[in-house]
Amino acid sequence: MNASAGLMLRLAPYLSVVAIRFKILLQYRAAALAGFGTQLFWGLIKIMVFVAFYASATSPPPMSFAQVLVYIWLGQALLALLPWNVDSEIATHIRTGGVAYELLRPLDLYGFWYARTIAFRSAPTLLRLGPMLAFAYLFLPLIGLSEWALPDPAGGLSLLLFVCSLGATLLLASAITMIMHIALLWTVSGDGFNRLMPGIVPVLSGLTIPLPLFPDWMQTFLYWQPFRGVADVPLRIYSGHIAATEAGFEILLQLAWTAIIIAFGYWLLIRGRRKLVVQGG
Amino acid sequence: MADSIANDFALYLKMVSQSIRSQLQYRLSFLLMSIGNFVTSGVEAFGVWALFDRFGTLGQWSLPQIAFLYGLVNCVFAVAEGLARGFDIFGSEFVKTGNFDRLLLRPRSTVLQLAGHEFQIHRIGRFVQGAVVFGWAVWMLGIDWHAGKVLLLVFTFVAGVAFFYALFIIQATFSFWATESLEIMNTLTYGGVETAQYPLAIYRKVFRRFFTYIVPLGCITYFPAIAVFGIDDPLGSSRLFQYMAPCAGLGFFAAAIFLWRFGIRHYTSTGS
In chain B, what are the domain boundaries? Predict the structure, then answer.
């Protein structure tokens, strides 16, 4: 057996976990529809707010209005990717003591949960992506609101790099979600940490306000923090605010953050397992 | 009649105080949840500030004026969200599980029982941040206060809580049919908070009409705020209308109770 076939054999159970969970989560169509309605409304409100701000701009903002439109619509379409909540089944396992069974499996616990997390982040996103794009790209121009519609990508290469960057986003967002899962092993403080995430993540990822619009003196800090990789980077690659020539480096940066956060999560899980008390009788 | 209302109210207060006491048993948890609530809702204020830092103004509106609207709607929403928890989780924890049957068997109204179900004290986090922003706005605006404006503000506050409370009741009512808490109502609750942070005048006509005549969000935020600022409404509403507008919040509450009673008659239990 050669080395790559051996690796595939070892990866196979994790890949099938991704596939199975993905198929299960694709069943939640009603939730996706509700999410679509919610995000549509938020998108429209945000656009009207930005229209008003852009109308009163005295100096040209560091981002064109078309680029803001990309940011808003793709941001809303990809909202479910954002690492701000936890897989409630994993949370229940930890709370009820089911984690003991998880530890008995002949799989690496981090790998097993990471595979589940990838499905948890990607399936709901995929369900919402289609309707959102159809609405923002096709439907809005039809009802005479083309000035609010999702613009075309900056170019073919930008589109391709956007898709690559989105793949890195999924890996990074899942790695951050894993930290939240592992934090649950510390019952009280983990819960507190996880409650802070829905506040911090939308701001630092750019979902609240496009990151380039924050004051100039904050830009260095905003550039060197990992949450930028879960929204800001792919959205700006699509709109060309990050030029295609720089996009490669940005994607590498996303992957570097992913590696760092996975390593940290691994270390955290080892520590968490050592102090783990199995709840329930 | 008056006797039974007083008795209901006493019972409600008792349920609320029990709920508070039980939450205070977990002090660290309460503290962390309050801080979490403060931060998650407070970052919105940071976002608004950042936009003003970038753009200077929002048309004719200044940052303190937006801060006034922001603080008002956040305080009002924090109180409503804390009080209406029973209705908020009604779909998933009462209808889906069949637990609502137990409430129906008790010799008290379902509204009273759900209202007293839980009073979430950690919502104080949002309330405090809203109050801080509101205080700053009032200080910056240098409003020419008189008794009428103070009364209007108190009235607006009460009507605003009633308005958001009503949204949670409507959300709960829908779950009689959907047997779930519907996420779509978030557009009106959380989305309403987001929307009301900015003046109604910046939105398109369709949205303005919707938030004035159908879901009267503007009536408990924008219109009374214009009267408190003492400026002319760019939408052209009269001062009298601005003072009377919060009535719509109370009317909306009455309509929600009516809808709730209608919904109960269509309730079929999921329990076995």
Answer: 2-264
Closest CA to B247 of B226, B216, B222: B216
Nearest to B183 among A38, A61, A196 (CB): A38
Which value does ipTM take for this structure?
A: 0.88
Quick one: A167 exposed, middle or buried, by C-beta within 10 A (0-12, 13-18, 19+)? middle
Question: Quick one: chain B helix, strand, coil %, rounded to 5?
Answer: 75, 0, 25
Q: Do A49 and B202 touch (CB under 8 A)?
A: yes
pTM: 0.88
pLDDT digit string, tens, across residues B90-120: 887 888 788 888 888 888 888 889 998 888 8
CA distances from A116 to A22, A257, B180, B187 (A): 8, 20, 25, 29
For residue A207, give the amino acid letter: L
Dihedral (CA of B123, B125, B127, B130) sign: negative
Residue that is written with structure tokens 């479910």 in the block: A80
- Alpha carbon distance B17, A138 (integer Å): 53
Give the span between the Cα atoms of A212 and A60, in whole angstroms.
Answer: 13
The candidate with the shortest Cα–Cα distance to A43, out of A80, A62, A68, is A68
Task: Determine the Cα–Cα distance for residues B158 and B80; give it in Å rounded to an integer.
Answer: 10
DSSP B202-226: GS-HHHHHIIIIIS-TGGGTHHHHH
End-to-end CA distance of chain A: 45
CB B176 within 8 A of CB B270: no
The Cα–Cα gap between B121 and B113 comes to 18
> Region B145-150: what's the mean pLDDT?
94
Whether B211 has its CB under 8 Å from any CB of chain A: the answer is no
| Euclidean distance between CA atoms A255 and A259, whole angstroms | 6
Beta bridge partners of B61: B58
User: pLDDT, tens digit, for every residue of B40-90?
Assistant: 888 889 999 999 999 989 989 999 999 999 999 999 999 999 999 989 888
Which chain B residues have a beta carbon less than 8 Å from that of A30?
Answer: 180
Q: Report the sign of the C-alpha dihedral through residues A68, A69, A72, A73, in that order.
A: negative
Of A34, A213, A214, which has the smallest distance from its Cβ to B182's Cβ? A34
3-state secondary structure of B58: strand
Q: How many residues does chain B have?
A: 272
